[in-house]
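From: lab user (bench 3)
To: helpdesk
Subject: output format question, protein + guanosine-5'-triphosphate

Hello, I'm new to running complex predictions and I'm not sure whether the block I got back is the full result or only part of it. Here's what I submitted:
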Amino acid sequence: MESSLELTTSLPGTYPPLLRSRIFKIIVIGDSGVGKTCLTYRFCAGKFPDKTEATIGVDFREKVIEINGEKIKVQLWDTAGQERFRKSMVQHYYRNVHAVVFVYDVTNAASFRSLPAWIEECRQHSLGQEVPRILVGNKCDLQHALQVGTELAQKFADSHSMPLFETSAKNPDDNDHVEAIFMTVAHKLKSQKPLMLSQPPGGGGAPPLGKSEEEEEGGWSCNC
Ligand SMILES: Nc1nc2c(ncn2[C@@H]2O[C@H](COP(=O)(O)OP(=O)(O)OP(=O)(O)O)[C@@H](O)[C@H]2O)c(=O)[nH]1
Ligand SMILES: [Mg+2]
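Helpdesk reply: Thanks, we reran it on our side. This is the complete output you should expect:
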């Protein structure tokens, strides 16, 4: 994938040209009820939502972060875990995706056992090995109900070359941790493809890593 960034001059003679920020599209995948909506909300709004309902299709959440002086828009696609709410959307989830976050619920072994199926779905949508993936075990505040231990999860993560994060979208003390998860992905994406200030001759070919804001227009709107 080529990395690109649009340089535009909004007014004739404007100098320096306006730099449009890159957008990293990160999809959050996993069984219904594992806490995808809560995790993405926690990262973007900084708090645990008062109440959630099953996601239908997809919800978008965005946060602008700064890494080494570059402003980057992290666009989280909070996908639906329920098959009936996702089937018409699946192809859109995977289109030009930059990274995948797999979520399971540490108090629900079935959600952990579903992970191979979610990985297989990625494979079926031709996600290349260069697309970073990370594994998140959520609801660690419910230790008394733990069904998936760290050792088992770490083994699974290692076998798929993914970093593992165990966290809680709910625990107020875990704010830094939730933040670290998505920041880790963004750092990885940024280091994978350093910023290029011009389009390669002929426009490249492969989709750019990080759409410009202009390209984003016309997409779905955020309903968070
Ligand atoms: N105790 C605890 N509950 C959580 C946590 N994260 C989410 N929940 C609860 O788990 C339930 C499901 O959370 P959601 O974020 O809606 O789950 P989801 O993965 O988005 O589900 P779908 O949209 O159906 O795919 C809600 O009742 C949340 O309050 C957590 O870290 N700890
Ligand atoms: Mg949801």
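A quick orientation on your result: The chain has one domain: 4-198. Let us know if anything else is unclear.
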